[in-house]
Amino acid sequence: MSLIITVYVAEGIVLAGDSRLTLNWTDKTQTGEQYNSITTSDSYEKVFLIAKKFGLGVFGTVYVNEVNICGFINQFVKENIDAETTIDQIPQLLISFFGEKFDYPATYFYLVGYKTEDGVSVPHTYSINIAEKVYHRSNFDGETTFHGTNWGGETEVLSRLLLTVKMPSGEDWVELGNNSIPWNFMTLQDALDFAVYGVRTTIDTMRFQQKEKTVGGPIDVLVVKPHQEPIWISKKELNTPKC
Q1: How far apart are CA 153 and CA 174, in angstroms?
Q2: pTM of the predicted model over 0.90
Q3: Domain residue extents for the chain
Q4: CB 137 within 8 A of CB 13
Q5: Which DSSP state fits 140?
Q6: Terminus-to-terminus CA distance in the chain, angstroms?
Q7: Which candidate, 200, 106, 218, 220, places its Cα nearest to that of 157?
Q8: pLDDT tens digits for 205-234?
């Protein structure tokens, strides 16, 4: 599992994700089946810069045909994306490439960037579900764009913190409403802080919980702004191993 967060505000869009790769499998035993889960890497690539203008985050099944999906993302870009490609064309291209080639795995993408419409750079954010062959534009209600966030993958920690929950009170359950976040007043720095907060808080919370540690490692953060090349705020790099 993973955690990918995108935050879209007036100044730009932030895309952030963790770096942990977890391997899950089931063994048959004399008493039934035994579920196994191990961390295989804390240096997995989940946030990508596409064509020097779009951001792409991946979560869910990130091994396809027993191979790291990262190389296939590079192949997808080389075969499908050029200087003329607009962001609204990419969701269907992703579904066609990863669906037909890999039998529609349970892989999800967040795609972010801008498209020039009537001379204006308009923000586009998409949620893409390869297995279900569907996608939707998450910052558009059919008439206007709006500001907000999406998070996908290991969402329990953030959902408990930020969404409406119920707590026991005697024999009843009392709803604790969430305190809304004014996304439309956020600066780009606020959006950046929130994205890192979301991933970091999930990592730190899971550290103490009696559950699989499915989110971890370095946090990669990409910022996409109109009229300029995206900026890596933090990005893993290859390092010389310690001997």
Answers
A1: 27
A2: yes
A3: 3-25+34-234
A4: no
A5: B
A6: 31
A7: 200
A8: 999 999 889 999 999 999 999 999 999 999
